[in-house]
Write a structure and sequence with these properties.
The complex is a heterodimer of chains A (about 260) and B (about 270). Chain A is an all-alpha fold and about 260 residues long. Chain A has ten helices and no strands. Chain A has one domain. In chain A, helix 9 runs antiparallel to helix 10. With about 270 residues, chain B is of the alpha/beta class. Chain B has one domain: Rossmann fold, CATH 3.40.50. Classes of the chains: A mainly alpha (about 260), B alpha/beta (about 270). Chain B: Keywords: ATP-binding, Cell membrane, Membrane, Nucleotide-binding, Transport.
């Protein structure tokens, strides 16, 4: 019996710890919003972070998008040709990417590439007392370090997701039209007639925007809240990647169920 | 000590998570002087600096800087005060993603609207004062420990502060760099007309440059005086600290039971 009690106490403590942490993260988001003014008044701070989070993630996002498109093209053609509708390959590739794979896979890649880098940078700044030094110089680290990185990620993420989808469609075209020989006119015209801007493209953009907020918040929060040691920063980076991945997948389900509730 | 104090600490107590760190501290830091706070590791010296800088709130008592109680200041007033303070951190805390030049220019760019030409002149003057004008293009990872500390010093004096705070400025330095930093602290204090407050373990170097010393142990001030007064004191704690004696009021051994009983005890097998 005492063992069971200890187990329940430990479980309860873990759950309440997570809830407290969620509360801290929410308060942290409010502080970011309060101190965001400087980010937009000094656009060079924002452009620098868009460069680091967005431009430097371009290679991994574009190459991954291309390969996902190539695989979608192969798999899609293999399935569709069994039913004699291989011309619908363009629709299949485009809808899969724009609605789901673009935002989700780009989000996961963004969390691994840019999110982890942001956590490491802020965590190491904390560990080497750079944030404290900044605060002692009457420069608020929330306004100077955290808010620009948060907004940089939020802005970069939808753009990266769009590029991912674009490269994926190009990959599907390469496999379907160039290598296999699906009719080019049918590939593009069916895609154009079946992909709805509001229903598909806009919803995909909304998803990637929400994922951008989630990943950027997790990345800056974990970095700022990390224990200022080598081990503490390494754990914070791991938490960023794991929590971001879970948040993206959970949010994707919630958003999809709202967006396509007519089904 | 004279009455015209830039910093005054009265009956200061500070606790962290029910653990008492500082108990009833009273200190005065007169304008224009270099004052050292000494004591063993964990006696609350760095906490004291953070209380003066307003990064922590006291449990009770007051810290007054330039006539204003620090913990009663609002955000804007506190930041206004910090603009007139400089702090040298233990390992420099340079911003590692920008050059030496940009590190020194950081505070000037953040707080003033000066032109880049003027900022350039100011940065070069500050770097020249610490002997590193020629290193302005280097990145922090290209500097030795002593050079990084000097750059951090140039950054701290960028806006000609009224109060300079040094957190263990001599830690990890070779004897040459240690002497250079010590002399710079004194010279810059006198040249800027500032007041300097130095937390340190380094007795010999500090005794050469400071005007007054406070000794702390277990969160209290246990001795104070000018370097000459402290050299002449019979106080066993000060004597042990000044002459680096292994045993004394601060015991060499962590509290333990009888030594022979421990040696004779047969440990249980793991």
């Amino acid at each position: 019996m005492p063992k069971l009690r200890e187990l329940l106490v430990a479980l309860g403590s873990r759950v309440t710890d997570r809830i407290w942490r969620l509360g801290f993260a929410a308060r942290f988001l409010c502080m970011i919003l309060v101190y965001s003014g400087q980010t937009f008044l000094r656009p060079q701070l924002l452009f620098r972070e868009i460069w680091f989070s967005g431009v430097l993630s371009l290679i991994i996002i574009m190459v991954s998008g291309l390969f996902v498109g190539l695989v979608l093209g192969l798999q899609g053609y293999d399935t569709l040709q069994r039913y004699g509708s291989s011309e619908a390959l363009g629709v299949l590739v485009a809808l899969s990417l724009v609605r789901e794979l673009g935002p989700v896979v780009a989000g996961l890649l963004f969390a691994s590439r840019a999110g982890s880098a942001v956590t490491a940078e802020i965590g190491l700044m904390k560990a080497t007392e750079q944030l404290k030094a900044m605060d002692m110089m009457a420069v608020n680290p929330m306004a100077r370090v955290v808010a620009p990185r948060f907004w940089g990620g939020v802005i970069a993420m939808p753009l990266l997701a769009a590029l991912f989808s674009m490269m994926g469609v190009f990959g599907g075209y390469l496999i379907g039209v160039v290598f296999i020989g699906v009719d080019e006119g049918a590939f593009w015209s069916q895609m154009q007639s079946s992909v709805d801007f509001r229903e598909d493209v806009l919803n995909g953009i909304i998803k990637s925007f929400v994922f951008g907020i989630a990943v950027s918040l997790i990345a800056v929060f974990e970095g700022y809240d990390s224990i200022p040691t080598a081990e503490g920063v390494s754990r914070a980076i791991t938490r960023t990647v794991v929590t971001s991945a879970l948040a993206i997948l959970a949010l994707d389900f919630v958003l999809t169920s709202f967006m396509f509730r007519s089904l | 000590m004279p009455a015209d104090n830039l910093v005054k600490i009265s009956d200061l107590n500070f606790s962290y998570e029910n653990r008492s760190i500082l108990n009833g501290i009273n200190m005065e830091f007169p304008r224009g002087k270099v004052v050292a706070i000494m004591g063993g590791s964990g006696c609350g010296k760095t906490t004291l600096l953070r209380l003066i800088g307003g990064q922590l709130r006291p449990s009770s008592g007051t810290v007054t800087v330039n006539g204003r109680v620090v913990h009663e200041m609002g955000h804007d007033e506190l930041y206004g005060m910090r603009r007139r303070m400089g702090m040298l951190f233990q390992f420099g805390a340079l911003f590692t993603d920008i050059s030496v030049y940009d590190n020194v220019a950081f505070q000037i760019r953040e707080h003033t609207d000066l032109s880049e030409e003027l900022i350039h002149d100011l940065v070069m003057m500050k770097l020249n004062a610490v002997g590193l004008r020629g290193a302005h293009t280097l990145m922090p990872n290209e500097l030795s420990g002593g050079m990084a500390r000097r750059v951090a010093l140039a950054r701290a004096i960028a806006l000609d502060p009224m109060l300079m705070m040094y957190d263990e400025p001599f830690t990890g330095l070779d004897p040459l760099s240690l002497g250079v930093i010590g002399q710079l602290i004194r010279k810059l204090n006198d040249a800027l007309g500032a007041t300097s407050l130095m937390v340190t373990h380094d007795i010999q170097e500090s005794m050469l440059i400071v005007d007054y010393i406070y000794f702390m142990a277990e969160g209290r001030v246990v001795a104070q005086g000018t370097p000459d007064e402290l050299r002449a004191t019979k106080d066993p704690f000060v004597h042990q600290f000044l002459y680096a004696e292994a045993d004394g009021p601060v015991p060499f051994h962590y509290p333990a039971g009888d030594y022979s009983a421990d040696l004779l005890r047969v440990p249980a097998r793991a």
